[in-house]
């Protein structure tokens, strides 16, 4: 699986950008998104403020939650 964080402007339906966060690993992402089993990370998950804070530390990404919505979007590789 490839795990990307997608950024959507709150007023639009298309993505502005995507960042590959696969290097964090399934176990770390499952822990951040509170998924009980890492092999269940197949859905799209909205990124909360708490999750954005954790992801920012691990990835050096900057999250602007006032302007954008973010989602973890897993895709088959």
Structure description:
- The protein is α+β, with helices and mostly antiparallel strands.
- Helices cover 23% and strands 31% of the residues.
- It contains 2 helices and 4 strands.
- It has a 4-stranded antiparallel beta sheet with strand order 2-1-4-3, with no helix packed on it.
- Strand 1 and strand 2 form a beta hairpin.
- The mean pLDDT is 91.
List keywords for this structure.
single chain, 77 residues, alpha+beta, four-stranded antiparallel sheet, 23% helix, globular
List the helices and strands and how they pair.
Blueprint: E1 2-9, E2 15-20, H1 26-32, E3 45-46, H2 49-59, E4 68-75
Antiparallel strand pairs: 1-2, 1-4, 3-4
Q: Walk across the major sheet and give the strand order.
A: 2-1-4-3
Structural class: alpha+beta
Order of helices and strands: EEHEHE
Content of β-strand: 25-35%
Instruction: Give the N-to-C terminal Cα separation.
Output: 5 Å
Question: Largest beta sheet, briefly?
Answer: 4 strands, antiparallel
The rounded Rg comes to 12 Å
Arithmetic mean of pLDDT: 91
Specify the number of helices: 2
Low-confidence stretches: none
Name the helicity range: 10-25%
So what's the overall shape? globular
The number of distinct β-strands equals 4
